Amino acid sequence: MSISSISSMSTGTTVTSYNSSNDTSQLEKQAANIKQQIQEESASDDDEQTKQAKIQQLQAQLQQIESQIQQMQSQKTSKTQTSVDSIKSEKMENSNTNKTNDGKNNSDNIVDVFA
Length: 115
Fold this sequence. Notes:
The structure is a single chain. By secondary structure, the chain is mainly α. It has one domain. Helix content is about 75%, strand content about 10%. The protein has two helices and two strands, in the order ββαα. It has a two-stranded antiparallel ribbon. Strand 1 and strand 2 form a beta hairpin. Helix 1 runs antiparallel to helix 2 (about 50-115). The relative contact order is 0.10. InterPro entries: FlxA.
């Protein structure tokens, strides 16, 4: 598991991503938290320049998290497709092996009958 962290000094926000096989829920919670922070900052009493700087920083973090979520979902889909392809391949190999074995059994039976 690799852990990366981005800290924001002006907003006090820390974004941590966990690269696990399926778990995007933690990232989705972080995205929701950042969206809330953007709304709070929009309604804050800060001057317009400070407000915009903080919002831009939060939006950049949100974009990064959404990108990570999308990447994890894509990897999950890719792994699923690879698993399906692998299963199909194994079934075809087993089917071909069974046909070959059936042919061998039939030829053995024929030889046994004539012997």
